Records
---
Amino acid sequence: MKRQAAMAARMLGVVSALTLLAPTTSAATATAAPATRSSTQLLIDAYGDSTTLGITCSEGHCAAQARNAVAYLQQALHEHDGERVRVTNYGVGGTTAAQLRDGTGNRRAGPTAGLPWRERLAASPARIVLINYGINEVMQNQTPEQFYAAETTLVQTARALGKEPVLQTSNPMPDSRINARLAVMVAMTRRVAAEQRVPLVDQYGYVSSLPDWKTLMSDGAHPKPELYRLKAEQDYRVVEPLVRRLLDDTH
């Protein structure tokens, strides 16, 4: 167990070094979009750790993959709602909700990444904000109370700025001891969603219910592309009705 925990920690530690450029690429893609947007275009920002970014590991090598949950969600929304909806991936490996709140995560992840959450979000035209954390809080020995406070601030700030926050619980981790600690963080995310009355995508509950979910993990924390696709289906079920309502409100 200790060896598996150490391996998971090493993997999460190298993710930030391996994936510095991936979020920048996402942000650069968003910047390269035409300057004149349709008045009905709806933008979604996805914030989170390496499981948002889309890390998959194979033979000890971890890297961001094009087949990740955010990309699959973008594809599904395009198929249903067309080019009016665009999702930008701001996932950064090794980061926590508190770092997003304070602006102390990877500063290469877009032009506003070094700003505190309120300033960064105020500069974003996104209407919907996806928030996915929990794993690195466990690996960095944060307390559930610290995580609860950080996620509460993220949600309340997003709402104060006119955004629609959507919380996501982390996918489970194969190591049973680490996963038990993660379950406590997941409970905090569920609590924040209930208290703040915001949509919740309970990935932890969904993935844990799959009989073969451990075979869909590429290492101790990161899904294989097949599991990222299944996670995106859960995201879509919660996000698409919100997208539809916001699009309808623009007419």
---
Amino acid sequence: MSNARTRAARPSYRCSECGWETGKWVGRCGECQAWGSVAEAAAVQGRTAAGPVSTPAVPIGQVSVEDSRARTSGVPELDRVLGGGIVPGAAVLLAGEPGVGKSTLLLEVAAATARSGLRALYVTGEESASQVRLRADRTGGIHDELYLAAETDLGAVLSHIQAVRPQLLVVDSVQTIGAADVDGVPGGVTQVKEVAAALVRVAKTQNIATVLVGHVTKDGSIAGPRVLEHLVDVVLHFEGERSSRLRMVRAVKNRFGPVDEVGCFDLSGEGIVAVTDPTGLFVARHHEPVAGTCVSVVLEGRRPILAEVQALVTPATAERPRRTTSGLDGSRIAMIVAVLQQRARIRLHTHDVFASTVGGVRIVEPAADLASAIAVASAWKQRDIPTDLVAIGEIGLAGELRRVRDIPQRLAEAARLGFRGAIVPAESHRDAGVVRTVDGMKVVGVPDLDAALRVLDLGVHDSAPLFKVHRTEPGRPALGVV
């Protein structure tokens, strides 16, 4: 018994930045690597006795689900990511880098909720009420059912909720709200946990759909304790390049829908607009065939998107050739260049290789490997690629082409946008080199990278191309099937 009491009384130490706990004091946190953030945590003693229940337990079949039906947020692309809309009583955490457009998006959601006849409360802790009003004037978000409050105290926020009785609550942001009876500064681990827990508790008990804005750290993860993501029902990431108007919302956690959907938005000075068909943003329609370009079909969640890869190959001016990428994984491009040199005998060790995507889209899916390899080979040989051809497939280190998921869905999207030819991995040895018609497109399956390059006459030795560029009208390139 005495040993048990000794172990129970042993102090524990906790990091004030990330909440990491350890049995002894250390100068540097073992989780977030912060210096001087580990301090002794207050000991919790005693046992919790049985207490009164809020509502009695009932058979699950008798629980009503009518109050938890999802309702539209007024932004179709956000509804797609959420799985149909915002569920009353749900807590949603939206995180993103500064300036990406989180406040603009949520102000639009609040205004759409107000226009639908429901009451919305927008609480801002980062701006004044007049600053938010200026944004609402610019984006057309003025409505009598949209209430606005500028508060940084949790008690004041709870008082506003009791007074307004909203159906939608937006808190921008959870790191700026502080609780007076909790130690620490706003944004600290203890404060964020208490503020988030209190707001989620109010959302559940009063059936209020609640959206919390969260900050991110320099590595892109959500700032604050990890428990913050466990408290909420939905975790969304809002991302986008500063040089591009395109913004994307991805679901990382979703208790009410899928986590493989993505929503696309266009951010401008007039506000944020949903982009229901973003493919045209990532493909440059050339009036003339251009060497070093190839189009692929990648999946963003469940949505197929056509993305163009551009490559430029120049003689190296330094002893070590450069491999520069934008919108593509640099290590994957380096691997593709190595496979081209070793398996297809395209000598690039004395050349600089530059590869980029169009429209600021970032491609991380290996389905674009074949398009990247064709673009590099085309730039190296200075031979044009048909402008209405797509290439889909993953490249292995042996030079083989591997199939990727949902190829029929990708081909259907390319056919819808007017593409007439496709190169894909062969399903079997019998299908290699066989041209078949799919959705009006000429599709050829190839077993490896060398065969794919021969189809377009991009190999080391000249060959009869299966797809070639010819012109049906002056100045208008078209795809020819030999």
---
Amino acid sequence: MSVTVRFAPSPTGNIHIGNVRTALFNWLFALKHDGKFILRFDDTDGARSKREYAEQIASDLEWLGVRPHRVEYQSKRTEAYDAAVERLKKAGLLYPCYDTPEELERRRRIRLSRRLPPVYGREALKLTEAQRSAFEAEGHKPHWRFLLPNFDVDPFATRRTEIHWDDVVRGPQTVDLASMSDPVLVREDGSYLYTLPSVVDDIDMGVTHVIRGDDHVTNTGAQVALFEALGANAPAFGHHNLLTTTTGEGLSKRSGALSIKALREAGYEPAAVAALAVLIGTSENVAPSASIEVMAETFRPSSSSKSAAKFDPTELDLLNRQIVHQLPFEEVSERLKAAGVNVDDPRAGQFWNVIRANIEKVRQAGDWWPIITDGPARDIVLDGDDLDYARTAFSLLPEGDVDASTWSAWTSAVKEKTGRKGRALFMPLRIALTGRSSGPEIADLLPLLGREGIAARRP
């Protein structure tokens, strides 16, 4: 069977790493099975959905290596949803309700006080035509509920009705429809809640697998019933564990620090973000892959734990360093140029090979390029005995070409002349040459500076 999956974000804000976990689970599943991936914007909320958010989501996914085979907008498919609503109404499976939020809350509390599950009691089914007409005449607009098939004849005499599925992530699952309220599919203003458009779209677009967060497990029972009510077979379902903050709080679009846009702008590598988004909270080692295609080869949805996974930004920093330290010059040259590195300089390639092991993000190389080409930074200034020592040491720079062996020969001569050793020997020279107390190996930096560049840094 061919595989078709979908990712259906709401363009009401920037997606965060938790959203991307779902997108990547679907993308990797599609790659692994040579299937199709649909990017489907849930933009039926016209007041909150913005075109700029949809464009940013598409851009963020492309940055991560997700390239949809098809892009859809639910706002353009209202005719299909209208037709489904009429079909359900004619079948007697969608009924109008005039209950106010206050009435619903009062009934919920009563049921809880009686130790009954707080499900909707289908009071609206008891309304006569005259009562409905009276509500309409008073200006009340109904919301519409889907009648779950959890009874034999009498909808007020529910019975245990189990929905079973073999979850792609969690294995065998069961939901009892008798433990659920009839879901609202249409609001008072005629707009649709997520469930109806989602099911209609999954049917029309041939979605075979729905992979999403495990906060939707219970919803699956009602959705399976809705698929069947519309004459379709339900797709396979998979529910992965969610990501939380390190304190256990759920991620939200209001927390902009973990949005993909913010992580991109902070200089993180897409491979680092993808690896952590997918592999954290699984039985797999959290390590970057050479490509998204390579990650797909070993991707196993079932490796996901059943408990929430905590996203720790320090882990992202660690992954990012690992990736940056392996990036070849050719792959980062454009970004180095944007960071201020003259990539046409003959030393640029060697500079990158030297500096990459000492930075966390590519753009940080831009901080070191002026130190090589213009002179030391002013982070630390030598004084006192260290200043006198450095002046003496510079006079002992070996003759000849500056190469990988120069530093060893130079420090040997300085040690013999001054008697200094260890940190007291090396640190003043590092500060004189770079203006910093840490960084790349000086032995590697000297050939980049050259004899004239070194001599010009004599304090």
